[in-house]
Amino acid sequence: MKIALIQPNSPFLINEKVMPNIGLVRVGTELQNRKHDVDILDFSGEDPKRLKQFVNGYDLFGFSSTSPQFPYTMNLFKILKEVRPDARTVLGGPHASALFSLRKKGVKDENIGDLECFDTIFSGEGEGDGIEKMFLDGWQDGGIVPNIDDVLIPDRDLIDIKGYKYSLKGKPTTSMQTQRGCPYKCTFCSGRDIEMYNKTRTHSPERVLKELDELHDKYGFESFMWYDDEINVNMSRLEELCEVLSKRDYQHRGFVRTDGIVKHPESVEWVKKAGFVKLCSGIESGSDEMLKIIRKGTTSKMNAEARRIVKEAGIHFESFMLLGHPYETYEDVVRTYNWLVDNEPDDFDINIVTPYPGSKMYDDTVPSTEFEGYDWEFKGTFFNKPRFAQEDSFYKGLKGQSHSDIRTRTLTNRQLTDFRNEIDGSLKK
How far apart are CA 379 and CA 192, in angstroms? Predict the structure, then answer.
């Protein structure tokens, strides 16, 4: 078949052309391997009306979408159907997988029905034998790939990889993923109820090095942004991986958990030797009560100790913070501010919690009448479920804007937004 895989535009992002959707590239690579003729139509930063130029050349149109991208995915779908009402369509990606999980549990949600305009709604990873289900009608579960070393290295010739621009310490940088899934239980994280996001699987060190070398030899990259949820879940694997990475003069940015650093401070020397120049961590809050409520599994003291260890190793440390946790108060916000002041991360990002399908905050919410204008509650946080097909929902975009309609019992959405802007503005100066 002649297949078009479509990456939607994301105009809410500060820059749409930073990192490509490698998940879509992996699907395209596997479809090519199965003798299909595949193009990726990438509308990142592009006018979606350009889709009209391509509508007559394909047998199948496969759309990938996250939840915040979905209104723009639907716009592309409508453009396609205006010109080719008979076009066969598939929806895959995180949004479809998250709502598939919700549907399977019997939860009623109008966002589920909004997906049924597509001929196929595909959940799971599209690189194993389950990929054949994308050619069937209705809701389909493609499952996951148990051994991800069986997956082909993504054919990045399918996209304009050099058209994406990200710099790490002055070097052009592209994205990598050496691990899938996260075993932890953070309530705000989309994917806790989805197998492909909560079951950890890793590439072997040899397979990682092979892909890095291909990116270097074919495209000239020697700097890499890792999209593993956290590189230090398995310490024995990390030590082995770092030993292999140390054989190359590549540099890396990756995500870590602070409890792993505190329990194994020697691991920071491993990653430094391997070429990691920047480590990022979800600190989330300076309040121990908040960390307990969101099931983070860390403490503010532990987070501070990890920051100290990384600083002494001379590695750049970036902290990711959130406001709007269940039952959060003004005093909790002050603790978050004080954590940043006291520990001086090299950089930080602070946003407002935005519940997405697949997270406990979204999936386990209950109806509420406690606050006018807020229809749903998750354990002391109140919000409205967006109609993702029609409206924006993102936690940070252009000029610090967000579409996150959430409040706690004592803090309004306006207060949370003002706190976020004040902390971000004052400390980054």
Answer: 17
